[in-house]
Amino acid sequence: MFPLPKRGVAALSSLLILTGCSLPRIITLKDPLTVEEHLRLGAIYESRRELDLALKEYHRAFRKDPRDPRVMFSMGNVYLAKDQPEKARTYYKRAIDLNPSWPPPYNNLALVLIKEERLKEAEIYAKKALELNPENPAPYLDTLGVVYMKRGEYEKAERYFLKALERAGKEGREEIERHLRESRDAQR
To answer: What CATH number is given for 119-188 in this structure?
Structure first.
């Protein structure tokens, strides 16, 4: 062992006295945000198309409450936006399992199934969403219209798009009108 110079001993002694001769402590930081706040923050990121940041917030919300169907639904939305339908489908099904009476995951699962050309299943889920929320049917009528348009049932699709437009507020009208134009163009 090497002998310490007197100044080194004094410096080491001073350091130990200042730190209180304690061992290093591990500090655990507690996440101050609630599930609701993580969901809101994630939705802001999602609206800016910052999908990886949105997903991080939704994972933080999940750590707070893994049984919240809104968290699963939000994760599904990000994976749908990232064009990862298999992951989106998984999260929408989890949201449905956690709250079978909540319509949005049924509708968004139908959208995934439409992308995958699984139109029969998509119709079932869109109808279930409509059944669960007949008071606000516009998004579900639109989804059913898309199912029928993809099947080549253009007259039926047009009826659903027109019903959706009748019931839609300002939000969502543009997409329904686009679907209606697509359906009419496909008939020509």
So the answer is: 1.25.40.10
Give the span between the Cα atoms of 127 and 107, in whole angstroms: 8
What is the CATH architecture assignment of 33-100? Answer: Alpha Horseshoe (1.25)
Angle, in degrees to the nearest 10, between helices 119-132 and 103-115: 160
The secondary structure of 76-126 as a DSSP string is HHHHHHTT-HHHHHHHHHHHHHH-TT-HHHHHHHHHHHHHTT-HHHHHHHH
Of 188, 181, 94, 100, residue with least CA distance to 146: 181
Could you report the average pLDDT of every consecutive run of 10 residues in the chain (188 residues)?
Answer: 55 52 66 94 97 97 97 98 97 98 98 97 98 94 98 97 93 93 92
Model pTM greater than 0.85? Answer: no
